[in-house]
Amino acid sequence: MKIKHTLYIILLTASLIPLYIFASVMIVQNNKNTKSMMQENLRFISESTISSIESFCEARRDTINMITQYEMIQDAVHSSLDGSISDDDSISYINNMLWERKIHCDFLQSLFIIDTNFNIVASSENITASTSDYFAHADSDSLNGNFIISDAYQRLIDGEMTTVVAAYSGIFDLNTQNIIGYVVEEIPTSYFDNYRSNTTLWENGLLYLIDNNNFFITAGNPDESTSDSLTDANDNAIWQKITEHLSCTNHSNTSGQFYFNVSGNEYAIYYAPVHYTDWIIFITIDLSSYQKMKTAYRILLGTTVLWTSVVLLLVHYLITKKITKPVHLISGTLENVQLQKNYALRIPYDKNDELGNLSNKINALLAYAEANEVHQQEYQRYLTKKTQLDPMTQLFNKNAIENKIHAMIEQANDTHTRIAVGFLDIDNFRDYNTLYGHQEGDRVIRFVASILKENINGIVGRNGGDEFLFCLAAVDSKTTIENEIRTVFEKLQEGLINLETGERMSIPCSIGIFAENGSQLHYSYMVQGADAAMYQAKELGKNTYYLNYN
């Protein structure tokens, strides 16, 4: 029952109460953040659209400024200003160049050059002098030669009145830097519908791009094709609110936001100027969609909380039904294991569920604990053996071989049998390191170690450096020892392949063996005898052995 009550407390304090608090906080926080998010999204969309239009303006500026630098165009403009007769071939060439540029830019209506008297010097098509009338009546500030895209105006093209804007920049005399004319690109306002249609707005969002005369460059929602008028009554009402606000504020060089209500719905407006023009962009969003989203969010969150509560209650019921018995079985078994120190005990629960899996894991752990002691003993023996071996040769190291020989001498004393101790020293070992390097010297040591290990019928160890120590127990005759030593020498004389020269080289060694019957022998006596025998072998000229057989 304690577990059941605890689960009730956990359910309330760790699940349902935090869930309800979380839901309440989320509703309040959502009310605060969603509107702010929509406003920030409105600003971001507006700035992104403005950036796209300004990038287009900069591309036109760079193209037009490049044309103004052509010497042939400069000469043609000078001729127009002077009233002199221009070279027909030159004018024809310029006209063709402008035509080629026009046909490669599908958004261009026309491309022409005028002088400061607003006479047409050259053009991409046959146009009348009235085409330049717009510039003759333009504000002088817009004719200072800096790049600009004009307000919208209309002219007759192919029998129809077409609304266009002019992108133009001054032609400056290369010597005096005085302005002498303009390069003009005419662009239909319908081209800017692309920017409106490519702008992603919230439901009922609108985009207005107007010039300094409040003429629509493009206007409407992204799905509408109309660019120069508003046909929807609600859109017109929104525009009236915008114009009322603009009449009370100076917006020409600033950006900002404001809010108003139309037909019971609240709208947010973001406006900003477009660089290189006298245009203003306005983007609106209908905040009533925010109210719908807020209501939908509350319904979704409420439904989620309700279903989560039902699920938590169901989970609590299943847990309280299935967990109590197996938990008691598990805890009881573990308590008995602790009291009895008996790892052979097992939990008697084999259901195919999570606690059954846990019981199996604990039973497996008990089985592991049972086997672990045996494993630990085996591992200890492995570590003991590992500490006795020389890393390079895998023979017994100095301490281990001494202990082994001590034990063999004691056994020989007990059984009164003959024992032999031998020393092997590699002759002139330093020459290997000097001539071939330490890596080759290490190969020689490992080679000698392998020969001794394979051919000495006893124990072998590395005494250190290039010295080896071995011991033969229960030696029955002098001939037995000599046969083993001769075999060792034969193998050493066969040698190994030198990795540097590729030639086989023998390994000369001096071996001394001291053999005596066991009675009162001791380690230092036997080792000194073997050491003396080895030096006797060296005095005999090295690369031989000497056996002192008592």
TrEMBL record:
Residues 417-550 form the GGDEF domain. This is Sensor domain-containing diguanylate cyclase. It comes from Lachnospira intestinalis. Residues 321-374 form the HAMP domain. PROSITE patterns: GGDEF, HAMP. NCBIfam families: GGDEF. Its EC number is 2.7.7.65. Gene3D superfamilies: 3.30.70.270, 6.10.340.10, PAS domain. The keyword Cytoplasm does not apply. It is an enzyme of class 2 (transferase). PANTHER family: DIGUANYLATE CYCLASE DGCM-RELATED, REGULATORY COMPONENTS OF SENSORY TRANSDUCTION SYSTEM. Keywords: Membrane, Nucleotidyltransferase, Transferase, Transmembrane, Transmembrane helix. GO terms for molecular function: diguanylate cyclase activity. It comes from the Bacteria. The chain crosses the membrane at residues 6-28, 299-319.
